[in-house]
TrEMBL record:
Chief place where the protein resides: membrane
Organism lineage string: Eukaryota, Metazoa, Chordata, Craniata, Vertebrata
Signal peptide stretch: 1-20
Topology of the protein relative to the lipid bilayer: Lipid-anchor; GPI-anchor
Entry protein name: Alkaline phosphatase
Localization in the cell: Cell membrane
Sorted UniProt keywords: Glycoprotein, GPI-anchor, Hydrolase, Lipoprotein, Magnesium, Membrane, Metal-binding, Signal, Zinc
Keyword Cell cycle recorded: no
């Protein structure tokens, strides 16, 4: 049996080689030695930038564990006509990396609320709570007061910088809310989701806090229903009553927000966003593009809704008008949702879109004055295994059969809705099924929604003080590095010098050469399934 497997493997490899799927230059030791020499050269020339960061951008891939990053790298490489794993993502090209320990104060495996408190406020909190220390208890309104902790966005604002949040989820969702809200229950999006007791005790919903806790210059994402009085028809889906506003207090928070600032503009579609971003009279910009979360990018109506990359560009353009710089939080928020559904195609295509936004921001800013961090709040029980052959689809089958003589996919989940038995046993799967964008990968344990995972996540860093991102750190370190690099609270004394103004020296250093396998790439184009 084993001999047969080896024979099959060899046959498979030979087939691969004969089809040119393995770049032929990789058979030559000189190829690897040359590549390593180039990487060494780049590494030796790395110089820490020790002047103050004028701008700080934090990219947060919700649920983007390391296995997600690796699988998305292969997907993006293949979408680009390359074999995949050798082709660096935009985030891969950042010069410094650390590991972040993501646990909440009360749980090993965290959620997006407690972790947002950690990486944005610099203090770990409890599961389900946002912007409060662990002395606050989940869902107990009366434990909020006195336990609030403020975020790096707040500190940057106090220092005179412009600030913004961009997300593909609703803007009141746990991760962006970590930048501006203090709440013991992450689901209190509007007053309609709050129990009467909490309202009586004076707790405020997240949407209201977004408008009143601080002055946020740019807010882009989904989440219209939480801003308008109950029954207000949605501008995009006026016939669909389920998309109406939900606020019980009858307040129109968009109107209230606009009244606060001259030059404030509200938009709800892509065209208006692009116009507003280019209008220098716009000082404050709120764009809410869906009633709830924005759609997955693969389902997006490109004429109506902006991509994460477009929102990021719009935000950078508006925020850059402040000569004192800006803080921007950008979330790829639906990577997490794809994983919860056990649909890896959704999670990975969202990760690729997230990486495109990182590439765009890297083009629009300078490494000399902008600290950019890329990290995740937590991982997922998403695995990438089974010895798949190089050049095959990342969504394809593992090489060989399982012990039940059925095929299995390279991508699998530890738990979730993908657990399904067929006549008491695991379903077989073929290549055509597994590469379908709707395919739900198999899971070992049945759950309505797949869970997060507890292992560390990566932090990629580029720009002033990026070299502080090293080693294995508590997740709270992320907020402190951003504050220290930008010389904002609580690091305003003993501040490092500002960078002398002048033309910026944007020496963008790629860590890896990407001049691989043009021929193999062309062949692959014919073989890799088309991705939309
Ligand atoms: Zn999640």
């Amino acid at each position: 049996m084993q001999g047969a497997c080896v024979l099959l493997l060899l046959l498979g490899l030979q087939l691969q080689l004969s089809l040119g799927l393995v770049p032929v230059e990789e058979e030559d030791p000189a190829f690897w030695n040359r590549q390593a020499a180039q990487a060494l050269d780049v590494a030796k020339k790395l110089q820490p930038i020790q002047t103050a960061a004028k701008n700080v951008i934090l990219f947060l891939g919700d649920g983007m564990g390391v296995s997600t990053v690796t699988a998305a790298r292969i997907l993006k490489g293949q979408m680009d006509g390359k074999p995949g794993p050798e082709t660096p993502l935009a985030m891969d090209q950042f010069p410094y990396v650390a590991l972040s320990k993501t646990y909440n104060v009360d749980r090993y495996v965290p959620d997006s609320a407690g972790t947002a408190t950690a990486y944005l406020c610099g203090v770990k909190g409890n599961y389900g709570t946002i912007g409060v220390s662990a002395a606050a208890r989940y869902n107990q309104c009366n434990t909020t007061r006195g336990n609030e902790v403020t975020s790096v966005m707040n500190w940057a604002k106090k220092a005179g910088k412009s600030v913004g949040v961009v997300t593909t989820t609703r803007v009141q969702h746990a991760s962006p809310a970590g930048a501006y809200a203090h709440v013991v229950n992450r689901d209190w999006y509007s007053d309609a989701q709050m129990p009467d007791q909490a309202k009586k005790e004076g707790c405020q919903d997240i949407a209201t806090q977004m408008v009143y806790n601080m002055d946020i210059d740019v807010i882009l994402g989904g989440g219209r229903i939480y801003m308008f009085p109950e029954g207000t028809p949605d501008p995009e889906y006026p016939e669909n009553g389920r998309q109406n506003g939900v606020r019980k207090d009858r307040r129109n928070l968009v109107q209230e927000w606009q009244a606060k600032h001259q030059g404030a503009q509200y938009v709800w579609n892509r065209t208006a966003l692009l116009q507003a971003a280019n209008d220098s009279s716009v000082t404050h910009l709120m764009g809410l593009f869906e009633p709830g979360d924005m759609t997955y990018d693969i389902h997006r109506d490109h004429t109506k809704d902006p991509s994460l990359e477009e929102m990021t560009e719009a935000a950078v353009r508006v925020l850059s008008r402040n000569p004192r710089g800006f803080f921007l939080f950008v979330e790829g928020g639906r990577i997490d949702h794809g994983h919860h559904e056990n649909i890896a195609y959704r999670a990975l295509t969202e990760t690729v879109m997230f990486d495109n936004a990182i590439a765009k921001a890297s083009q629009l800013t300078s490494e000399a004055d902008t600290l950019t961090l890329v990290t995740a709040d937590h991982s997922h029980v998403f695995t990438f295994g089974g010895y798949p052959l190089r050049g095959t689809s990342i969504f394809g089958l593992a090489d060989g059969k399982a012990s039940d003589r059925k095929s299995y996919t390279t991508l699998l989940y530890g738990n979730g809705p993908g657990y399904r038995l067929n006549m008491g046993s695991r379903a077989d799967v073929n290549e055509k099924q597994s590469v379908d964008p709707e395919y739900q990968q198999q899971a070992a344990v049945p759950l309505g929604s797949e869970t997060h995972a507890g292992e560390d996540v990566a932090v990629f860093a580029r720009g002033p003080w990026a070299h502080l991102m090293h080693g294995v750190q508590e997740q709270t370190f992320v907020a402190h590095v951003m504050a220290f690099a930008a010389c904002v609270e609580p690091y305003t004394t003993d501040c490092h010098p500002q960078r002398p103004s002048g033309p910026s020296d944007t020496a963008h250093q790629a860590a890896c050469p990407s001049s691989l396998a043009l021929l193999a790439g062309a062949l692959l184009l014919l073989l890799v399934p088309t991705l939309h």
